[in-house]
């Protein structure tokens, strides 16, 4: 506690001893969240640093939207190399103010609702082809459907890359997540530098190709922004990798988590089958109850008071959006899964200037894949005795596998 008390003016009575990275939090966080919500937001020592931990809906919603007092930029403190995923380049998710506005403006057009709607038919084709490949009545919904569908939807349809070039971004993402194991002060390992250089070269070739044969999709949009002087080549790599890494895993997780929750609640699976118009409400309930994300974070720009919790300049502020999803001030029977509950504004995609730019893409891909699956199978259940294990970085709540047993529909209309 000495490090904590070293931070002037923090009330030691408002500290809780929590483990934000505990694996069991992903399996079933309800008991922990009930405790964390009881006395409101608090302080905890996280990764050795005294931090604010926001759990109530009101606090999390306010913090997400408050870019005046809370910064998204990661401070370049000693040991920063392990957090420098983007090789020192600016990135939309971890930037503030004018640079953030510039990056967001460069990325936005192909992510708007009309552009996303235009991709629906292609994404449906991707889902149908994956379902065609499933033989028998048992399969892993993550490996055989959700992950490949999300990856092809993002890299192939949204970004507009040929499949043969996917490995460039897949390799860089893997190298990027490997940085977490870097000792403090160490330089990026050769595997990361090589993957970054390969992606940078690739963007060079795309810039040349787009001049003679312009394509559509995000890549083409970013090349246009490059020619307008709005984006460097390195910034193009940083934004593309953010869309791929930040988009693929949560979409796959949302698809897998929806199947898991509906398999565990056959009555609600049947209600959705009887009334397909409930699909959006069902997704909202999965985003609340089994959210793909556990938390996001910010850094305080200066001292201030957040609904009674004093926040100190430079303090990390963890917004536990998934805990806020169980706040009884907002939700009746918060610990029950119910796709028929009254819909409330979601926190799962954030708020304010950093609101998820992939919101429309995420919902479209998830809807299309689930509709195709519902059409193909009359019902589905989790395979008997299957244990659901979780994977991903500490911020994610991603099932590693969702083993399903299905009953095929007698007549299938594509
Ligand atoms: C179910 C799926 C998804 C969930 C739950 C989700 C969640 C979020 C959340 C909570 C934020 C705000 C982070 C913050 O304020 O710190 C965010 C931002 C972001 N998301 Fe998503 N996301 C999803 C899908 C996607 C997809 C499909 C893409 C890309 C195609 C994407 C790209 C981004 C980007 C680039 C940002 C940063 C935006 C900015 O800072 O202006 N996300 N997402």
Task: Describe the fold and architecture.
A five-stranded mixed sheet has the order 1-2-8-5-3, with helices on one face. The longest helix is centred in the middle third of the chain and has 32 residues, at 233-264. The protein is built from 16 helices and twelve strands. Helices cover 47% and strands 11% of the residues. The chain has one domain (2-408): Cytochrome p450, CATH 1.10.630. A hairpin with a 2-residue loop joins strand 1 (42-46) and strand 2 (49-54). The chain is of the alpha+beta class and 414 residues long. It has helices at 2-5, 24-27, 30-38, 57-65, 97-107, 113-117, 120-132, 141-158, 166-178, 190-212, 218-227, 233-264, 266-274, 279-289, 321-324, 359-376, and strands at 42-46, 49-54, 70-71, 138-140, 296-300, 304-306, 309-311, 316-319, 377-382, 390-391, 398-399, 403-408. The site of protoporphyrin IX containing FE (HEM) has 26 residues, from helix 8, helix 12 and helix 16.
């Amino acid at each position: 506690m000495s490090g904590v008390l070293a931070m002037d003016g923090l009330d030691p009575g408002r500290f809780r001893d929590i483990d934000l990275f505990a694996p069991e939090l992903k399996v079933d966080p309800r008991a922990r969240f009930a405790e964390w919500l009881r006395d409101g937001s608090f302080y905890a020592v996280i990764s050795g640093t005294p931090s604010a931990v926001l759990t109530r809906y009101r606090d999390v919603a306010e913090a997400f939207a408050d870019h005046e007092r809370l910064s998204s930029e990661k401070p370049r403190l000693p040991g920063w190399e392990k957090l420098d995923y983007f090789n020192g380049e600016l990135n939309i998710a971890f930037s503030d103010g004018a640079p953030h506005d510039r990056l967001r403006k460069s990325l936005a057009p192909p992510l708007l609702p009309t552009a996303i709607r235009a991709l629906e038919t292609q994404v449906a084709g991707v889902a149908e082809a994956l379902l065609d490949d499933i033989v028998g009545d048992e399969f892993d919904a993550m490996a055989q459907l959700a992950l490949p569908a999300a990856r092809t939807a993002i890299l192939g349809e949204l970004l507009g890359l040929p499949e043969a070039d996917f490995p460039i971004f897949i390799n860089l993402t893997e190298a990027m997540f490997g940085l977490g194991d870097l000792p403090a002060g160490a330089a990026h390992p050769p595997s990361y530098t090589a993957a970054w250089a390969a992606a940078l070269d690739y963007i060079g070739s795309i810039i040349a190709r787009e001049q003679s044969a312009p394509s559509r999709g995000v890549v083409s949009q970013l090349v246009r922004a490059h020619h307008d002087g709005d984006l460097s080549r390195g910034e193009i790599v940083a934004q593309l990798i953010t869309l791929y890494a930040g988009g693929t895993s949560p979409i796959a997780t949302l698809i897998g988590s929806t199947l898991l929750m509906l398999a565990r609640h056959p009555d609600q699976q049947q209600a959705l089958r009887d009334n397909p118009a409930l699909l959006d409400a069902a997704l909202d309930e999965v985003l609340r109850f089994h959210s793909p994300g556990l938390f996001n974070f910010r850094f305080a720009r200066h001292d201030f008071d957040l609904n009674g919790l004093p926040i100190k300049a430079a303090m990390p502020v963890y917004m536990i959006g998934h805990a806020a999803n169980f706040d009884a001030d907002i939700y009746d029977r918060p610990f029950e899964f119910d796709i028929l509950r009254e819909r409330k504004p979601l926190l799962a995609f954030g708020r304010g200037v950093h609101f998820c730019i992939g919101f429309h893409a995420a919902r479209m891909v998830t809807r299309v894949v689930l509709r195709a699956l519902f059409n193909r199978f009359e019902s589905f259940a989790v395979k008997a005795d299957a244990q659901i294990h979780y994977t991903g970085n500490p911020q994610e709540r991603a099932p590693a596998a969702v083993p399903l047993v299905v009953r095929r529909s007698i007549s299938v209309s594509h």
